[in-house]
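Hey, resending since the last one bounced:
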Amino acid sequence: MLSNLLKGLFNRKSLTELNLKKLPSQGLFYSDEFKISIKKADVDGIIYYKHNYKDDPLSVIWLIKKIVKNNIHLTKGYKFEDISSIDIVFIFLEIVKLTTNNDIIMIHTDDVVTFDSDHFNYFNIDKDLMDKYDRDKKEFVIDDFRFKLPTIGVEGSVTKFITESASLGTLSEFSDKSYDFMYFLGDRTDLSYDDIVNLITIFNDELGDKEMETISNIMENFSPFNKYTLKSDSGRILDVGKLDLSKIWD
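The structure tokens again:
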């Protein structure tokens, strides 16, 4: 019992709390008590990442999620699936930096840029949009639609839905559909196959033209959230997607 207590105290001391305002979501969609802390990845986790790395986006995202899930500590009552999906890669890179004790550098012609909050190109939300922000619900309310970045749980549910649809031979029925419903689900972290079919139907076939236009405008206004870029000291914008994640631990 004593050893477990000491182990718990040691683990807490080894945690580094992240500033949620420095994440790509800028912490706007988390409750006030929500906190994320990270720890160094262990050797086995790094070896697993390197051994299973494939030059395939879905495979890479799966490995990134695995590293993040195994090396975070959240406020009691919250789980990995509550994290905004947009923040996962940023958190992963913070874990890499903490583990290796090295900066992550991007080089583009004459520019050398460090991946950190000083160089991350955050979405500058104008006053008109911020006036529509509900600070209690942690979402934006626009013409009765409540916008919130999707959780990693919802993103995982949609990925599972696509995989299951492919295995059932029904993927073509949904391939040209909009999945914008993901941004209007509040704090949902899990969706069943039938839930997603229902939401696809509502958001693609049952909303009126005015509602569809409103959703389109909302998505356009918040589209900068989906851009993972760095700003160099010279002002050049660099795509974080160009990082070589196969050698990120070296």
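Confidence is low (pLDDT under 50) at residues 4-10.

Sorry for the duplicate.
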